[in-house]
Amino acid sequence: MASADELTFHEFEEATNLLAETPDAATTSRSDQLTPQGHVAVAVGSGGSYGAEDEVEEESDKAALLQEKQQQQPGFWTFSYYQSFFDVDTSQVLNRIKGSLLPRPGHNFVRHHLRNRPDLYGPFWICATLAFVLAVTGNLTLVLAQRRDPSIHYSPQFHKVTVAGISIYCYAWLVPLALWGFLRWRKGVRERMGPYTFLETVCVYGYSLFVFIPMVVLWLIPVPWLQWLFGALALGLSATGLVFTLWPVVREDTRLVAMVLLSAVVLLHALLAVGCKLYFFQSLPLEKVAPPPQITSLPSNIPLPPTLPQSMAPS
Amino acid sequence: MAEAEESPGDPGTASPRPLMRDLKAVGKKFMHVLYPRKSNTLLRDWDLWGPLILCVTLALMLQRDSVDSEKDGGPQFAEVFVIVWFGAVTITLNSKLLGGNISFFQSLCVLGYCILPLTVAMLICRLVLLADPGPVNFMVRLFVVIVMFAWSIVASTAFLADSQPPNRRALAVYPVFLFYFVISWMILTFTPQ
């Protein structure tokens, strides 16, 4: 045990040095470098896939205490408290987005990309972008459908912006809240891995929604099987990222709880994607019916005679 | 907003003067937006009259008729208002949280004034829509909206970009892009009933 104590002491110094530097140091594109310093000093809890877990945990506990003391100073009513959640650079945000697009089994998003400095910029603006892109592309689909079939009544459908916004933001905040609450409740079962903080969970969910943005844009292509293919691909990427991030936390729990939790996470994500597709990109039945009060779009496999070109204003 | 001291002796002459002066200040800022140069006028003498006038004009022109069905129409007057003002406030908060050194109302002022090109685009679109509908009609409107959108972005970043450190400039400018994109979208999809 003497050698372990020595090691613990030395690496604690390194941890404090790194922590002192952390406010200024940019945790930028060194995600591929698995230096023990960068990983050990700032992590709370163990990164199980890297080994040396006991030493990692002891230093990281002390490092976490130091970090908590530093973080407790601004109260939540001050502006600088919230400023600490926007303490990111452009390169860091882009790095985190890249990390969410390409999930890898060994690389936990929270440990590897967030490095215990979650930000609120990414989740907030990704959700805003997704909500507006949903509304805009849903509207565009209707425009393109009307050009093929002038009997469809076009209207700007502005209420869809509010629906999109509210549903995306509720998903990106309430589901992480529930997940975080559940993980904290099960905290007693796990010995080694501490649960993620609420903000880290929000961050993971927010960045995982990024892949839906290009998916929604690609849904403009009016080929149904292609739309479902893109949807499945994006959902797979996004859910995989979530599962890889949550796996180190839940695998110490009972098998049943772990499976239920992970499948609930994936199911909710799938529900979001399918809900977006069905609500914003509805498809008409094959027979041409009189336009119902709900606006629908036309699948492309109906052969229609080319009509006179129409502008977006109904004649 | 500075107001002229009204001498209690002659109340009759006091009222037109502050109005003309304020209108001139607003007009001067309009010119600064239309020809964006590196100048501090918008930042130093900020006011919110210009943004209010622009927002009301835009919302009046964008609102749908009450005859149209409630669910499927374009934005209501209040919706445009809320989008513009909440959008501007959110962008300002974002910019300040990222560590920008611009004050809250200065940022609101700049964002509001830079809606001017888009308001001009709305006017042009309404005029163009009086002509025959057709793809040419749509192309003209699309071109006008794109040009004015680019103009708004250039004008606002000319004023706002300097307030952020260079490694966060893109983070602060992206929400501005999104904001004007949404407004441009509302203008482009406007259909008179």
What does this 3D model show about the protein?
The complex is a heterodimer of chains A (315) and B (193). Chain A contains 12 helices and no strands. The longest helix of chain A is centred in the middle third of the chain and has 28 residues, at 121-148. The model of chain A is unreliable at 10-17, 19-56 and 284-315 (pLDDT under 50). Chain A is mostly helical and 315 residues long. Chain A has 2 domains: 4-71, no CATH class; 83-280, no CATH class. In chain A, 62% of the residues lie in helices and 0% in strands. The radius of gyration of chain A is 24 Å and the shape is globular. Chain B is mainly α and 193 residues long. Chain B has a domain at 46-61 and 75-188. Chain B is built from 8 helices and no strands. Chain B has helices at 16-34, 41-44, 49-62, 77-97, 104-113, 116-129, 135-160, 169-188. In chain B, helix 3 runs parallel beside helix 6 and helix 6 packs antiparallel against helix 7. The longest helix of chain B is centred in the last third of the chain and has 26 residues, at 135-160. The chains are: A mainly alpha (315), B mainly alpha (193). Chain A binds chain B through residues 26, 79, 82-83, 85-91, 93, 121, 124-125, 128-129, 132, 136, 139, 143, 153-159, 162, 293, 295, 309-315, and chain B through 68-69, 71-76, 79, 94, 96-99, 129, 133-135, 137-138, 167-171, 174-175, 178, 181-182, 185-186, 189-192.
Structural class of chain A: mainly alpha
- Fraction of residues of chain A in helices? 55-70%
Question: What portion of residues of chain A belong to β-strands?
Answer: under 5%
* Spatial gap, N to C terminus of chain A: 85 Å
Question: How many beta-strand runs of chain B?
Answer: 0
pLDDT average of chain A, as an integer? Answer: 71
In angstroms, what is the radius of gyration of chain B? 19 Å
Assembly state (oligomeric): heterodimer
The biggest beta sheet of chain A is recorded as: none
Considering residues with a beta carbon less than 8 A from a beta carbon on another chain, report the largest interface and each chain's count. A-B, 38 and 36 residues
DSSP summary, beta strand count of chain A: 0
